[in-house]
Amino acid sequence: MQVHEFSGEALEDVARERFLPMITRTGPDFRGRVAAQELGEAITLSQSHWGASMSMVRTDRMAAMASTDNLFFGVQTAGQTSHCQHDRFAELVPGSGVLTETRSPFERVSSIESRRMTLRFSRELLPLRTAEITEACARSVDPAAPAMQVLSGYLGRLFEIAEDLTASQQLDAGRAAIDLLAMVLRAITPSVPGGDGPVGVLLDMMLVYVREHLSDPELRVEELARRHYVSVRRTYTLFERIGTTPGAYMREQRLLAARVLLSDPRHARFGMSDIAAAVGFLDLSTFERAFRRQYGTTPAGWRREHLHHSGSLP
Fold first, then answer.
1. pLDDT above 80 for 259
2. Residue 40 exposed, middle or buried by CB count within 10 Å (0-12, 13-18, 19+)
3. CA nearest neighbour of 154 among 101, 117, 100, 116
4. Assigned domain for 218 exists
5. To the nearest whole percent, how much of the chain has pLDDT over 90?
């Protein structure tokens, strides 16, 4: 077990190390404690104690720059916390839970001392479709729900005995927790059409997924098809409905996102490599070549022209 005890000044560093990069603010005399149990390379169970008021904000840029695609399920064990993501607002009381995805911005606020148990794991381990996962985020799970009581009891007991388990038992126990979580989330998630539903709905789901994961350099047609439980061939057929291919649509959306970043004075200090990485291009020359082919100018030229026109050229 790894234990961190810290003051408010160190909260941002601890959040980055144990959870993910966030902007944090705390009240006076804040003290915190995080104890974590590793349950395999991609699963961690932790208990957190926030000793006073605090807020955590995951910005759009932080979400776009995410290098991993993790999910967090938090169980409130004491105090109250407010949670907002995808324009949904969840008020957490002891015994309730909430799912959070790291590739979308969110905000968490607590005005009093609070305690929380958090299961962190890779998105691919949760046996739900992408749209179902997104729809489940920021929806408070009722502590009186039988499935939630089973899950919270299991997580509490697992945290207590995890150190006595072998490495393989820890991994099995972590995966069992994720299976229990899937049962909990299915009960709160609105109905989402499946891969056999209307082709227009499935295509819309794919388009949304692409736009929400532009920063992932591994986003390719094979991954898109796998995430939506269809073949690569059917994926190409679906994109023919909008007169393009999956690869061309991904490239177009990445370049559109880059154009927005280059035109925004708030990003004027970021280099071209940072902009390229933020929209999923690992190679700067590939990014610059694609941008020039699409817009007839270089990324640097676009930035100079549009920031100059807005009066914000650094």
1. yes
2. middle
3. 117
4. yes
5. 31
